[in-house]
Amino acid sequence: MFQNHLPIGEFDIYNAKKDETVDIHIHVRKAKLSDNPNNDPPMDNVWRYIRKGSKEDGHGLLPVNLGPILNVNRNAPLNVHWNNDLSSGSMQGMPDMGNPGYLQSPPINPVPMDYMMPGMNGSVGTVAHLHGAKVLPGADGWPLTPLSFPCNPYGFPTSATYHYPNDQRACMLWFHDHGMDNTGPQVYAGLAGLYFVRDESDASLFDLIGGAAQEIPLVIQDRMVDCDYCCVDYLTGRPVNPADKTFDRPEFLGETIFVNGRAWPHHELSRKVYRLRVLNGSNARTYALALIDPNPWASTPIPSQPEVWHSDLLTVIGNDGGLLPVSKTLAATDYILLAPGERLDLLLDLTGVDPAVTGKLRLVNLAVNSLHNGDWPEAIFQTENDINTSASPAYVAASILKPVPSDAYDRTPLASITGIKQANILQFCLKDDPKVKAAALDRAKLDQILHAHADEDGFFWDGKLLTLPAGKTVARNRLVLLMNNTSQLNGASPYSGVDWQDTQIWEMQATGGGAPFAIPFYVDLTSANPAPGNPVAGQNYKVARATFFDPKTENQTISPQNPHYPALQPSSIKPAAGSYERWYVANIGNQQPLSAAIITQGGPAVPDMHPFHMHLVNFVVQRRFVLNPTSNGFVPVSHANTFDNEARHDTVRIQSNELLELLVYFPPGYSGRYPYHCHLVEHEDMGMMLHFEVS
């Protein structure tokens, strides 16, 4: 562990010019997954985005399995010509194994299609989605407009040019595959890259910390690898029972943590300030990130109170939607949650660290309670109860940090972190270079930079929170339910009229006809300029829409014999461009009546955490509520380091039995149809995706 170096220079990093057209091709290729000189995969092991004219545009071994990294300037449009160079092939598990109507299977041991739910479509192509981008629908990566292979029977093109205006705040975006029902395996195969929108805020920050060379991208992913680190395996990360073809856990969770395409890498740092641009690019794993000294007893003599926790070296300055209005330095024992699709912009200040005392710092993941308890298969993240309690900062502070004789330190809690593979991410090795005398981070200048860029893209910073600009009002309230089938119901739902699924997403409307579905929260769904919602007992709603496709054709699938996707279910949410809406998004079970009495950790009504992602827009989390076990209703709740009312999101994690109030801004000049979905990509593939239509 920590034998590989952290790839940075190995990436194809390209600074795009205004109005340029960049050609990117999708190839099946060989890529290194390890620094081992013998790690030359015997066969193609990845799907990769390759920029035409780059050093990777050939037939040699690729240095990393991800990329490229594109840098663009704000308000400098870019065209990307996406090309699918993959071929046709047989989809595993399809009735006709030689059927040429499907895209070749990725080289990752994919799950056979006959293990999938009814109505899931085989892959007929790839779809490039620039996650977090403000773009017109034709460039958004609509999942039903794939780039297919030559001579495909569906009439899809093999290439398309997407126009990216880049008229948005400086931020870290990422592009990845968004193929209908196949996002999980196709992203896992390697179809992901980074896209940075830059403006004068970047120049100011680099001046503050000592230059652009201090920026380090960190793409965190989990994988299942073979013994030689030559290929990755998708099927073994989604344990299934071959006898009845059911999943023990439908989401992919891997045992090996990759950063920038290397397993558990290390990176050498000096006593400087670094900017860490962090992406959770995993399919389904949530990380609770903390910074520790993996060996606080290394110095001589051993200090009476060795420091273990060092998260206070981290200052959060941004997330999905760009910079925060004000910086947030973590406490030493803090962690920060990062769900799939979410990004963080961090400053790591090492100017006050003595390498002779703290020679190594390790970025760790505390969201491993399931592994600590010996669960098999490992459970998906649900709530902060899934943070490893025996390795929690409070527990360590009470045991390791207490002053006791040096030979009697209780090292068990630290071992519970470092002894679990999935709890380890990246190790920084600190070097003591006497020539390096960087100044400590100037927080006052930092906050001046952040504050100068606070009032952008539709939100106003009033000194305490991001809110509506003067004279603006909320046009509508919306209510969306994210649901796991916690009661394991079968057959048609009396509420939606369609079959219960393992994962579901419903758009709700005021009670009218149809069976009412009750939750203890009132939302005015009919008025213009409505008041905010509030907890009440047993408020009834009915389902406005529960499926992406028309329910009459929901179980039809695309095939050469039926060469088109099913008809869409029309959007029931139709916001106006330039408007603001409140979206109430609840992550609940399907049991009725919905009562907190049935909510017990580990019980039948504890749904998975869902990262809620909306295309096109940014939104601000205004309030959070949780279903309370004693009151049978929703009550306000807050979590540390969520930056509610301060951060612009395009993806936000909603923990089990929580309801979030989101202030959503639909930018002017952008109309059409856009998806929204859970960013546990297997849930997205299983139907946890709907769409809104901007007019």
TrEMBL record:
InterPro entries, alphabetized: Cu-oxidase-like_N, Cu-oxidase_C, Cu-oxidase_fam, Cu_oxidase_CS, Cu_oxidase_Cu_BS, Cupredoxin
Superkingdom in the source lineage: Bacteria
Q: Provide any one GO MF term from the record.
A: oxidoreductase activity
Q: What Pfam families does the annotation carry?
A: Cu-oxidase_2 (PF07731), Cu-oxidase_3 (PF07732)
> Which keywords annotate this record?
Metal-binding, Oxidoreductase
Q: What SUPFAM superfamilies does the entry give? A: Cupredoxins
Renumbered to this chain, the signal peptide range is none
> Plastocyanin-like domain spans which residues?
126-201, 559-694
Q: What is the name of the protein in this document?
A: Multicopper oxidase domain-containing protein
Biological source species: Candidatus Methylospira mobilis
